[in-house]
Amino acid sequence: MAKKLTLENLAVMVQKGFRELRDEFGKRFDGVDQRLDGVDQRLDGVDQRLDGVDQRLHKIEEDLVSIKSDTSYLKSRANELDRKTDKHEEHLDDHARRIKVIETKSGVK
Question: Is 101 a domain residue?
Fold first, then answer.
């Protein structure tokens, strides 16, 4: 025999359907929440690693400034020494010519 559908029975069926949907969506949202928590944790790890990289790059930049300063000073000193060496070479050449003249006049060579 077919059961007579009443308004009350229909309301119970609809309510049951909504509860089932709520429970199913609740499970799915819990799964999504867990996955998002995992993503958040991985992103936190990435942030920490990027902070470390940023700190190392900052240190490298500071070192580079120091190296550039040192290099500039060394270039300046090398140029100064080169000028002094050139002067000494000129003096040595002049002395060598004078000695040659003296040796020639004195008959040593």
Answer: no
CB 109 within 8 A of CB 103: yes
Q: How far apart are CA 19 and CA 39, in angstroms?
A: 30
Q: Total domain count for the chain?
A: 1
Residue 75 token pair: 């270039």
* Per-residue tokens: 28: 């799915």
In a domain, 59, yes or no: yes
Instruction: Answer whether residue 45 is part of any domain.
Output: yes
Structural domain of 17:
9-80
For 48-96, write each residue's pLDDT tens digit: 999 999 999 999 999 999 999 999 999 999 999 999 999 999 999 999 9
